[in-house]
Amino acid sequence: MMDRLDGKDRIRAVICDLDETLIGPRVAQWGRLAALLHASLPAPAGGATRPLPSPVTAILTRLYAWSRRKVVLDAEVMDALEALRRAGLRVGLVTNGAARKRHTIELLGLGRWVSCVVVSEEEGRRKPDAALFQLAAERLGMRPGEILFVGDKPRQDIKGARSAGLRTAWLRRRPRWLPGPRRPPADLVVTSLRDVLAALGL
Predict the structure, then answer these.
(1) Is the pTM value of this prediction over 0.90?
(2) Cα–Cα dist 104/124, whole Å
(3) In DSSP terms, which residues pair with 189 in a beta bridge?
(4) Cα–Cα nearest to 95, from 141, 137, 128
(5) What torsion do the CA atoms of 107, 66, 26, 86 make, to the nearest 10 degrees?
(6) Both 42 and 18 in a single domain?
(7) Does residue 58 share a domain with residue 80?
(8) pLDDT the model gives residue 4
(9) Which of 146, 185, 186, 194 is in Cβ range 3.0-4.6 Å of 12 for a Cys bridge?
(10) pLDDT in tens, 66-112
(11) Any domain includes 7
(12) Same structural domain for residues 43 and 97?
């Protein structure tokens, strides 16, 4: 399911939601667990190796090592992000969540492709607040109309991005025959990131 992406502004950047857009709900849950465990572990003393752990710390360390291995990007997502990079389009993230979501982003290795990250708790706002999307546009140094935002939630993602002047692609994960939210007024309706690349001519 895909519409044409037309309009006078050439798309020069793509900003994505994180949970259920770049990663599925299961990976998002593992990411939250890994970030929580990481925050619970004692910091290395003086930047050196950690002291000999207590039994509780040892258990937390093993749980953290196990959970972080679950926080991975799908090959399709990595291929799409790499295609955007090769085409010269900049990539950003705007996500609701706690500041420790930065750790999830780090575990996913998104720094390889993403040059702008806006996390709601750090800014004291939550999507659909247009200010979050405007801030991302400013950090990318682009006009809102030059940016395509990709997200799965009609209100938080599509309504919020449109109110900030960004172009929008609604990532509809559910099959069409399943009940779900009404189609939001997005520029595109897609079922995968491959559809986004096709709409951009990549």
Answers:
(1) no
(2) 19
(3) 170
(4) 128
(5) 30
(6) no
(7) no
(8) 61
(9) 146
(10) 999 999 999 999 999 999 999 999 999 999 999 999 999 999 999 99
(11) no
(12) no
What average pLDDT does the structure give for the chain?
Answer: 89
Q: Percentage of the chain surpassing pLDDT 90?
A: 76
pLDDT band at residue 46, thresholds of 50, 70 and 90? very low
Please state the φ and ψ torsions of residue 124, each to the nearest 5 degrees: 70, 25
Specify whether the CB–CB gap between 167 and 149 falls below 8 A: yes
Spatial contact of 16 and 150, defined as CB atoms under 8 Å apart:
yes
Burial class (CB in 10 A: 0-12, 13-18, 19+), 131: middle
CB atoms within 10 A of CB 51: 10
Residue 93: inside a domain: yes
Under 8 Å between Cβ of 146 and 13: yes
Domain range spanning residue 33? 27-68
Residue keyed to tokens 């925050």: 39
| Spatial distance between the Cα atoms of 115 and 140, rounded to a whole number of angstroms | 8
Question: pLDDT tens, 76-89?
Answer: 999 999 999 999 99
